[in-house]
Every structure is written in structure tokens, then in C-alpha cells.
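Below is just one:
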Amino acid sequence: MDSNFLFRCSIEENSISTKEFAMVWVIDPAHSKATFSAKYVMINTVRGQFNVLNGQVHIDEEHPENSWVEAEVDAASIDTQNEMRDGHLKSPDFLDVEKYPTLHFKSTKVERVKDEEYRVTGNLTIHGVTKEVTLDAEYSGQATDPYGNKRAGLSATGTINRKDWGLNWNMALEAGGVLVGDKIKIEIDLSVIEKAAMTEAAAASQTA
């Protein structure tokens, strides 16, 4: 048998295998949310979200330690349902969106705690500062929607101190305390759609 034929078959088989297993899950912004909350005048809670969210997730159910997530939000898309407050949050007093247009998270470690509960550690970049954070996460499993898209559901929660990222602005209250709390609670709900990730090798083989 022609050895060149066997060689070509081997390449094609490897290319198919690469395409089959090189999969990523893309965040569906229409069904995902990145929300936060903070204390106002020490007693009330103000909630908000970022309306522009994108990123990718790799899910390995058998070996969760191989899973990862990378996500980014548009800082200027912050929305607390108050135009004046949103303007202040976008200003140099807080996010300074003109200088730092995105908030970015990239995981470095995924650990299964029990059942569908996980601990996700990664680097969170806000206001040009990168700090390590750990989030409590839950994996809801996979399903196919009415349009034939294979979806997975994930959620994560955590608390950070905004001052760790240089967001120090505040105002003292006459009765004591401050206007804005330092602790920010984060809640992430993701709906992700599975899509084939074309590797550079596979792309090159198609254009050759």
C-alpha cells in the first residue's frame, strides 16, 4: 500500500480528532449577567450590572482541574438604573472607563468542592490593577435549547474590597460612617454555547 496514502490518512484522522475535542463554550450575553452590590450610607444596598459581557469557558466534567474561564465586561456598560450615579462610577473617582475600558477575569485554578460546587481562583483586573480572587461556583449541567444549541449553565459568587483595586473614593457622613461601602458582592450567571474551536493547525490544513 502507498505509504504516502497512509500518511495522508493519518493527518486527516488527527485533524478530525483535533476539531472534535478542541471545543470552547462561548458566553451568550443575552442570557448571562454580571451583577454587583454595595452598601450605600451604611444601611442600604445598591445593585448594578454590566450590560456588555463576553468570554469563553472550557468545561471538562471528568477532570474539572482542566476547566477554565476567561471573561471580560465593558466598564462603560455599568448600569445601576440611575444615570447620575452611573456617570460618577464611570468617572476617574471610580472605574475611569476612558483610561480602563474593561474589567477582565482569567481563571488559574478550578477545584471541585462537592457535587456541582466548585472553587474558581483567578486574576481579576479592575482599574488597571490585577489581584487574585477566589469565587464559589456552581455548574448546572448541559442542555439543548429549542434552536439546537448545546448550552451549559454556570454561576459564581464572591466578595472583594474595592480599595484593593485602587477604588478609594468616599465621602464621610455627618452622623458617622461613609457614603459607599468598601465590600463589593459579585454575582455571575452564565449561559454558554458550545462551539468548535478551530485550531491553527486545522485552519492551515484547510487553506493548504
Summary: The mean pLDDT is 87.
